[in-house]
Amino acid sequence: MFLNKIKKIDWQYLVNRNQALLFNSITGRCYQYFKKATGLSWRPDFKFFLGNGDHMYSARELNNLHSLFKRGGIKLLVGFLHGLVFNIQAFDKISCKIEEIDCLHLNKAQLVKLLDDFVTHALYAHNFLVPMTTADKVLTDMILDLLPRATDQQQQEWLAILTFPIKENEHTKEERSFLKVARAYQAKSQKFDKLIETHLQKFAWIGARGYWWRKAWKKTNIQNRLVSFFAQNKDPNTELRHLRQLKREQVRLAKEIFQEFNIKQSSSLYQLSRLAKEYAYRRTWRTDVLYRSGYRARELFYEIGRRAGLKEDDIVYLTFDEVLGMAKTKKAPISLEELIRRKEYLAYVALKNQILVLSGKEWQEKLKTISAQRANVSSKIKGRVAFPGKVQGIVKVIYTSDDIKKVKLGDILVAAMTFPNFMPALERAVAFVTDEGGILCHAAIISREMRKPCIIGTKIATKVLQDGQTVEVDADNGMVKVIKQIAES
After folding, report:
1. Cα–Cα distance between 50 and 62 in angstroms, integer?
2. How far apart are the first and last CA of the chain?
3. In this structure, are residues 443 and 423 in contact, taking their beta carbons and an 8 Å threshold?
4. Cα angle at 386 between 382 and 389, to 5 degrees?
5. How far is residue 403 CA from its own chain's centroid?
C-alpha cells in the first residue's frame, strides 16, 4: 500500500548526497519553518531520500520553487541570501557553544534542553539546502541573458570568470594549511608534527561530511596524502604561490571583461556578477557550516546514546525525533533488529505529514525502479565546461568518501558532485566529471583552482561510466568519450 503511494508521486531527481539518517531527518522536517527562515511561500509535501544518496522531490513543487525565484529576480535573491547568512551563522554559533560543554556531567533536563536548542537552529538552517540549486540556475540564466552575444563556449568562459568567488571557502583554507604541512615535511622541520595536529584540529571534520563522524580525518590520512602529493613531483611553495596568484588573476580577468564591453558598476550585469560571486561562496559555506556544526555537537549525541546503551556509531542511524525521545526516556528508540536493517539499507520518505523510515534489503529491492528514474541513460556524455583541457585516463566512479582510495595518479574522477572531503582524490586525478553542478558549484570552483579539466552537469556520468574504462575528457567542448572498455577477465 505504502509503496503504491510512493510510486504515484511525480518524483524528480535533485541531487545525490550520501548523508546519515540523522542529517536527512532534519532536512525532511525543516520545511515547516521555510517561510519564516527564507521569506518564500513554498513548502514541499513530498520528499524522498533513498539509500543510494538520491534526493527526490515532487517535480511540480520544484517547478513552483523555480518560478518563485524567477519572478522575484534580484530583490528576492538578495533577500534569500540575507536569510541564509543569518540562520546559518546562528546555527554555527550554537554548535560552538555546545562543543565547549562537557555533556558527561549534564542531567537529563539539561541534555534535552541543549539538544532542543541544537535541533531548532538546525531546522531553520537546513531550509537553505534545496533552494540553493534552484537559485544557482536562475542566477546563472540571468547573467547569460545579459552577456554579449557569442558562442556557448565563450559565454561559459565569461560566466566562469565573472562568478568566481573572491572569498575563500574552507577547502581553500584547508589546502593552504596542507601545503604548509607539506613544506614542513619537505624541510624536515621540527614543527611538522605540531602543524599536522593543528591542521586536524581545524579541518578533521571535513572527512566527516554528512554526519558520518567516524570518518573524520586522522593523522594517517594526512600522511598518506603527503606521500601522494610528493609522488606527483609537486612543490608546496609553487602551489602556495598559485593559490595567491589565482585570486588576483580572476579579478584582473573580470575587470578586462567589464572594460571590453563597457559594463558600468551601476549595470544589472555588474550587480548580478557581484551577487553570483557571493552565492558561489555561500553555496559551499552553508554546507560546510551544517556538517561542521553536527561534528562539533557529536559528543552531545554520543552522551545521549550512551545513557540508552547505544554505541557511538549507532546514533547516526536514528532520526532526530528518535534521539530527542531517547534523551527524555534514556531508552533506545528502536530494536537491535531494526538497527541492523537500517545499516543494511534505509530510505526516508515524507508524503505530506506521513513520514516513514524504510529499512532492510527488501526495501532496497522494492525502491530500485524509483531510483532508476533519475537519469535517462545513453552512451553520449555531454556537459558544461567548468575548466578547459583535454586528457585521457582511467575512470574511477566515486559514490562516497570510502571510494576515494580507488583514485590513483592520472585517473579520471567521476562523481555525482565533488565535495571538500574528496580533496585527496581530486589531487591525484587529472580531470573531473560530474552528474550535477552549475557554474557556482564546488567542482567548478575547485577545478579552476587546481587547473584541471572538468565537465559538470552531465546528468548521467555515474550511470554510464564504469571503473576501469579508459576515457577522453574533452573539456574544451564538454564531451566525454569512451576509448577502451573494461578488459574481460
Report:
1. 18
2. 44
3. no
4. 80
5. 16
Burial string for 264-286 (b: 16+ CB within 10 Å, else e) reads eeeeebbebbebbbbbbbbbbbb
Which amino acid makes up residue 333?
P
Instruction: Write down the pLDDT at residue 473.
Output: 96
Task: List average pLDDT for each run of 10 residues in the chain, which is 489 residues long.
Answer: 88 93 97 96 95 94 97 96 98 98 96 97 97 93 94 89 92 96 96 97 97 97 95 94 90 94 94 95 96 98 97 97 97 97 96 93 89 56 92 94 92 94 94 89 90 93 93 94 75
Q: What is the pLDDT of residue 489?
A: 43
- The kind and range of the H/E element at 358 are strand 354-359
Query: Can you tell me whether residue 231 is helix, strand or coil?
Result: helix
Which H, E and C letters describe 158-203, residue by residue? HHHHHHCCCCCCHHHHHHHHHHHHHHHHHCCCCCHHHHHHHHHHHH
User: What is the per-residue pLDDT for 379?
Assistant: 60
Which residues 6+ apart lie within 8 Å of 46 measured at CB?
A: 9, 11, 57, 58, 61, 350, 351, 352
Cβ(479)–Cβ(384) below 8 Å: no
Rounded Cα–Cα distance for residues 255 and 367 (Å): 51
State how far the Cα of 445 lies from the Cα of 437, in Å rounded to an integer.
11
- State the Cα–Cα distance between residues 11 and 8, nearest whole angstrom: 9
The pairing of strands 431-434 and 454-456 is parallel
Nearest to 454 by CA among 444, 469, 439, 463: 444
Q: What is the DSSP string of 94-160?
A: HHHHHHTS-GGG--HHHHHHHHHHHHHHHHHHGGGSHHHHHHHHHHHHHHHHHSPS--HHHHHHHHH
User: For position 12, what pLDDT does the model report?
Assistant: 93
Question: Helices 21-29 & 320-329, crossing angle to 10 degrees?
Answer: 100
C-alpha cell belonging to residue 90: 546562528
Dihedral sign (CA 193, 194, 197, 199): negative
What is the Cα gyration radius of the chain?
23
The pTM score is 0.92
Residue 202 grid cell: 581545524
Measured between alpha carbons, how far is residue 289 from residues 16, 339, 450 in Å? 19, 28, 23
Residue 413 φ then ψ, to 5°: -85, 120
Q: Do you know the residue count of the chain? A: 489
